[in-house]
């Protein structure tokens, strides 16, 4: 049997297990099918009738895809209709407070679903561009493809808004106890799916994800590319963790479907000191990883990278001081410090993205698809891609500082928009960060191969000289 590489087109998945076809048998079967097809065409040309098999009755994949999209749109319209009618039943003074609270529970899961959708696009582009991302992240053969990632994102996009619609409907119709159970059941179901210990629901991928999270929290071993890559993504999702903390806090203290969280003395309110602690955690994880890398490699760039993540700490804690100092102190002293720290953090992060995480010498090669594609034609080698990626990264680096500031969290629609834009910025960043790593791996392989060939030539020459002597 001929060995098949992990990224071979003949490697397919059935559930979470790979199915490898024997190439010789596959070609023989194809030849037999083609012979059968020619014989059938000959019978048709002579007027013979062929029996219709079951596969001919199946609808085409394009038709199935359109049908699923239609069902998805119908479901979306139904949820919007029910949600709008339910909100309009409430009094005007109560409506805004309720929407703010509902947003707290379901906003982090919607942002997580957006990240999963965009990650699927990343994997699709990697596959089209011939980038072996499984090798870069050290994934096994059971890793999720972009299609399976999109399937997970689709279910998240269906389940979360459905639960949110049920929450709004039940609350507006007076069923407060049933409404309060909706976010609790949703969060519990997500946790159960993640930690389910049996070989279903993409067990190997869930295990890899949870193991990587463990390595991020406790960097007791050498840092792999997957470790600091996921940690970087977590820094772009601090809004998710902040709202998750407040949501779980309200569930534990049985405050769901109330507005007690708006009170200053509420244990889960906006004045809680836990909020800045949660916001800073992803940056501390990444900071510790950089120190670990310096310990293992001795590279001073790791210390400079650690310094970059430390600049986010003043932004977070200076912003929090607004709730704990007099207004005059905040206006005259702490707010200018907060603005200065924001400029330092945004500038340093932008500089590092362009000069360290990306390598502009190999920019956009990832969009050179192995097969002709309109998407590749629009992006590969285009100057506007350089301008867009660098310019948008600078702008979004600055606006992301807005979300790191706890005292600005009450304008939830603006914060949600900025959080979604930061996820989009990270989505763009992933392309060029992975491309840079892929180029480094290829260059390293070529250098090792050249060194090996040179040593073989020297050995042959030495052997020939000894033989002549």
Automatic annotation (TrEMBL):
<feature type="domain" description="EXS">
    <location>
        <begin position="266"/>
        <end position="465"/>
    </location>
</feature>
<keyword id="KW-1133">Transmembrane helix</keyword>
<dbReference type="GO" id="GO:0016020">
    <property type="term" value="C:membrane"/>
</dbReference>
<feature type="transmembrane region" description="Helical">
    <location>
        <begin position="152"/>
        <end position="172"/>
    </location>
</feature>
<keyword id="KW-0472">Membrane</keyword>
<dbReference type="InterPro" id="IPR004342">
    <property type="entry name" value="EXS_C"/>
</dbReference>
<protein>
    <recommendedName>
        <fullName>EXS domain-containing protein</fullName>
    </recommendedName>
</protein>
<feature type="transmembrane region" description="Helical">
    <location>
        <begin position="63"/>
        <end position="84"/>
    </location>
</feature>
<keyword id="KW-0812">Transmembrane</keyword>
<feature type="transmembrane region" description="Helical">
    <location>
        <begin position="184"/>
        <end position="204"/>
    </location>
</feature>
<dbReference type="Pfam" id="PF03124">
    <property type="entry name" value="EXS"/>
</dbReference>
<feature type="transmembrane region" description="Helical">
    <location>
        <begin position="104"/>
        <end position="127"/>
    </location>
</feature>
């Amino acid at each position: 049997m001929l060995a098949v590489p992990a990224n071979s087109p003949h490697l397919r998945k059935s559930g979470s297990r790979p199915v490898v076809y024997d190439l010789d048998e596959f070609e023989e079967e194809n030849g037999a099918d083609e012979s059968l097809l020619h014989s059938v065409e000959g019978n048709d040309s002579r007027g013979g009738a062929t029996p219709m098999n079951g596969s001919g009755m199946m609808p085409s994949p394009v038709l199935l895809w359109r049908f699923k999209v239609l069902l998805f749109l119908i479901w979306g319209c139904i949820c919007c209709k029910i949600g709008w009618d339910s909100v309009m039943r409430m009094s005007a003074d109560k409506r805004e407070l309720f929407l703010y609270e509902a947003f707290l529970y379901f906003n982090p899961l919607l942002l997580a679903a957006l990240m999963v959708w965009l990650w699927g696009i990343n994997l699709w582009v990697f596959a089209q561009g011939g980038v072996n991302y499984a090798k870069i992240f050290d994934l096994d053969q059971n890793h999720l493809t972009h299609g399976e990632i999109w399937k997970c994102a689709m279910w998240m996009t269906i389940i979360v808004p459905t639960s949110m619609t049920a929450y709004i409907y039940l609350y507006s119709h007076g069923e407060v106890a049933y409404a309060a159970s909706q976010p609790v059941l949703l969060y519990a179901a997500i946790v159960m799916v993640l930690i389910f210990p049996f070989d279903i629901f993409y067990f190997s991928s869930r295990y890899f994800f949870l193991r990587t999270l463990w390595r991020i929290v406790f960097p007791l071993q050498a840092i792999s590319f997957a470790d600091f890559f996921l940690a970087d993504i977590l820094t772009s999702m601090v809004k998710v963790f902040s709202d998750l903390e407040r949501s779980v806090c309200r569930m534990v203290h049985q405050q769901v479907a109330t507005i007690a969280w708006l009170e200053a003395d509420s244990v889960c309110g906006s004045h809680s000191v836990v909020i800045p602690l949660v916001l800073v955690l992803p940056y501390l994880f990444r900071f510790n990883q950089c120190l670990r890398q310096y310990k293992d490699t001795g590279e001073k760039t790791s210390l400079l990278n650690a310094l970059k993540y430390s600049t986010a700490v003043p932004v977070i804690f200076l912003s929090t001081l607004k709730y704990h100092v007099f207004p005059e102190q905040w206006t005259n002293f702490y707010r200018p410090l907060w603005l200065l720290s924001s400029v330092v953090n945004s500038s340093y992060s932008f500089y590092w993205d362009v000069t360290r995480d990306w390598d502009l010498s190999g920019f956009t090669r990832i969009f050179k698809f192995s097969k002709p594609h309109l998407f590749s034609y629009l992006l590969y080698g285009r100057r506007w891609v350089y301008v867009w990626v660098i310019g948008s990264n600078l702008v979004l680096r600055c606006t992301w500082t807005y979300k790191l500031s706890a005292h600005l969290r009450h304008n939830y629609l603006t914060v949600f928009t900025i959080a979604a834009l930061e996820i989009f910025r990270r989505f763009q960043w992933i392309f060029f960060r992975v491309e840079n790593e892929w180029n480094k791996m290829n260059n390293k392989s070529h250098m090792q191969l050249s060194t090996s060939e040179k040593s073989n030539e020297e050995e042959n020459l030495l052997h020939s000289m000894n033989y002549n002597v």
